[in-house]
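Dear colleague,

Thank you for sharing your sequence with our group. We've completed the structure prediction you requested, and as agreed, I am returning the results in plain text so they can be pasted directly into your records. Please verify that the sequence below matches your submission; if there's any discrepancy, let me know and we will rerun it promptly.
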Amino acid sequence: MAPYTIEQISAPSREQLDQIMRLWLQGNLQAHQFIHAEYWKSNAPLVRPLIQQSTLWVVRDGATLIAFCGLQQDFIAGFFVDEKHRERGVGTALMAKLQATYPQLRLTVYQKNIRAAKFYKHQGFSVLTSRQDEGTGEVEDVMGWEK
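Please find the predicted structure tokens below.
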């Protein structure tokens, strides 16, 4: 993790926002193959302003954003790592920074996204409840973590 920088950004530049949106779309398409790709593509214009309103934590490799987390208070609305940097400790380092900064965190994860669910459980999150996502019809787990 030495060459990487983890930081909070409050007003992403257009270039940073473009990089975040690429990570968001790429990550959703890869992790959620059980949801039609058009769902993610059609939601991108709606997500972009929401990301700008979120508390953003990013991992940079030089000027390139390789991971990000968007928070709405203590809710992780998005957590994405570029595919070339997965399984290299980037996501773990970002989550460790979040857990050192916030006393509690919540998130939702689709049950079919086994890789992400396993990652969050490994980071100390536990399933609080399950529900059906209205937008996709898929079952998601609401997970939580506390110090």
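Summary note from our side: The beta strands are 4-9, 55-61, 64-72, 75-81, 104-110, 126-132, 139-146.

Kind regards,
the structure core
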